[in-house]
Amino acid sequence: xxxxxxxxxxxxxxxxxxxxxxxxxxxxxxxxxxxxxxxxxxxxxxxxxxxxxxxxxxxxxxxxxxxxxxxxxxxxxxxxxxxxxxxxxxxxxxxxxxxxxxxxxxxxx
Length: 109
Prior knowledge:
By secondary structure, the protein is mainly α. The chain has helices spanning 7-67, 72-95. 78% of the residues lie in helices and 0% in strands. The longest helix has 61 residues, at 7-67. It is rod-shaped.
């Protein structure tokens, strides 16, 4: 059994194979990009949840101390501590940068 192929058929098959490889590569690139976007949004949601939880904890402790007056030093500490933490976080956020990129083939750095 022999298969007789014309040059046009061979070129058509090679072109179809090449197109399939290109579509496959584009799909993997899109999937990689979608995964990176999903990771970034998950980080934001996780951070927002932690911020809300800590804010609620600070408000609860402050409410307990203010509702039961008696110790002025404790009142000053409870009201000043969140300011110190907020200043630390803001300073660190504005001065430290993160490199969360993945190195790919062909990248020069």
